[in-house]
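Entry:
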Amino acid sequence: MTSRQGDLFAPEPGQVAVPADVWDRLARSAFRARFSLNKADRAYLCQKGLATVMEHGGDFIARRLAPANPARDGRQTPWKGHPVFVAQHATATCCRSCLQKWHGMPKGRELAPVEQQQVLAVIEQWLLRELQKQPKDNATK
């Protein structure tokens, strides 16, 4: 990841605070609340480690979400196949429309580095919350 001069003192994803109201609003959404890590995603996260998975997440966000007009916006995030993808749907960080509606990040302009860090912080905190839960035998979504 390249850094710009203005990014020198930007907080790391783990240090960005996610407002409590975000979690409250997400919890009230039946659609968002239905997502959880399945066994394969949980195993992948445990095997690779959170740092590596979040590295992947940073790449996904930079390539698929950060551009002003992402290719296939609204359909750019797969539903499964990586823990970050599941987290993106669970946290409404999956497309620019969701980012605008849930997180107040307007469409039509590139996400600033600090906004990308905010997105990653939400994803990381959701993954940590998931790891603290007891795994469900039927958790597939």
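Residues 64 and 72 are 9 Å apart (CA to CA).
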